[in-house]
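Progress against Task 2.4 (sequence-to-structure conversion) is shown through the following example record, which the project officer requested during the mid-term review.
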Amino acid sequence: NYSFLRLHLRLLPCNQYEEKVRPCIDLIDSLRSLGVEKDLALPAIAVIGDQGSGKSSVLEALSGVALPRGSGIVTRCPLELKMKRRKEGQEWYGKISYQYHEEEIEDPADVEKFIRDAQDEIAGVGVGISEDLITLEIASPDVPDLTLIDLPGIARVAVKGQPENIGDQIKGLIQMFIKKQETINLVVVPCNVDIAATEALKMAREVDPDGERTLGILTKPDLVDKDTEQTVVQIVHNEIIHLKKGYMIVRCRGQKEITENVSLTKATEREKAFFKDHSYFQTLYNEGHATVSKLAEKLTAELVHHVQKSLSRLEEEIEKKLAQNQEELDKYGSGPPLNTSERLGYIIDKVTEFTQDAISLTTRDELKFGVKSNLFFTLRKEFAAWEDTIERSGVKFNSKIEQEVAQYEQKYCGRELPGFINYKTFENMVKEQIKQLEEPAVLTLKEVAGMSFVTMASSFIGYPNLIRTIKMKIEDIKKEKEFAAEFMLRTQFKMEMIVYTQDPRYSKNLGNLRREPEQNCGFTQVQLVYEAKNTGIRNETATTLEEMMRHLKSYYQIAGQRLADQIPLVIRYYILQESATQLQREMLQMLQDKDRSISLLREDPVIKNKRTDLQNCYTCLSKARIQLTEYKYIQLQHKITVGQSLKPELK
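Structure tokens generated for the chain above:
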């Protein structure tokens, strides 16, 4: 657990400390420097506090360098403070980096100026804020191994030059960091204010109600009112507002000591003496809850513990993001080659594959260009709907015959003798019914024409000129072939006005209907006789009508089946096969113009930038995975050694 880890770190020899602590913190620092934090939430310690809480003084005491101070907002950008402990005798080292700027700092006294210049460049000269990160790296024998993120102090009232909503802007920036479950929130609160009324602690509790990720830091203990010292002790003992990570108390340089140029080293000595000699706070000192050095030790242990606890989740997140990233990259492709001759070969290959797919689409072969289009499934649905239209029309036809049977003698009977069928009446009724199928057939054609090859043009995503050219060609060919197909369909229906079928087929179909009279005819013999009695129709006429119904249904079944097959054949031939052949021919002709062909590969800048971003992100995530794997391997190698060296010390 955490207490054991903290004791562990205190007892570790220097070389084992380097193996245990520094690699752990370096791992997260290196992941953050890769830029993966925009995709992954990395373990971090964020420092927040109200204006004037002493936040800058705490960070100065930890880092050993002066940071921007003053009234109002002095921290105007998030400041990532990377501290690396060096061996005794090694020189101080500093470096600042932000956006695309990176510069080494030779003198620790210049740190404040570098930070102010960076803030002015990022957020503008004045009092504005920005969410862009400034990274300050400090290496020295006098700093702990620790990385903190310092956030702007919480402002309640806008001052001259600040926007009215500056308070909301700052809170929004702080929320970006402290709401992440991977962030430990370090809340800085002065001892001489009501802790429950501080905005910083209120914000921390909103995102961490149970105090799982929050550590309280009490500052300015030398300014507490008389007789309130015991309350401060109770707060540090976690008896007033409970935080699972508890509280620490520190005394840093005040404004008077800064004015008097009291060094940080001297201030550290004064702090230690203050707590040791204080009648109330010496208890906190003895318990390890006081001084900046104890705070640094606790923060290091907290960060190491937090990182180790987060590694498994971090590894899973990296794998998940890599898979998502690769899936996105596959959509955007690899992009065109830079070399002119290679670009020409590239577009020839792409267009050839595209036209081959267009042909394959008409024969249901496997596509090579990556377009997933089950066109035949859609066609079957459309053609099944066409066949259903024919069947529904047949049902209506049968119903119409039945309704008109009773009026047959007055409406259709001519000079023929009973038992003879009027052929002209038969022919007119058949033609009228088949004619009603013509417009539904044309509508089916237009439905299919609208779904053919246009979607395939999306295979060239990122090449607007090429997509536009292909779509224009497809649209022109579609119009041409749709016109030819419609002409052929209407010709087919003109031919259907010639009532014809092979005699054996017709006789066979009619014979089947005669053998199943009740199933296939609208009226049975009994029904017809009943109708005859009520309408005055002779029985012989009723028999004639029954026979005519069989003839009408027999022929409609044959003609309907013919149309059910012929219309889809015409549509497939013109809209798919002929269109694909012509598209292939015109696309290959287009490639004869080399200059124009290369201009068609002019890539959409949005797509190009998106692919570049995805490639960079994938590279960063891959490096992060490698670093994480290497860290886990090294820790595994040292685990047994560290455990064995710890046992004698604990005894």
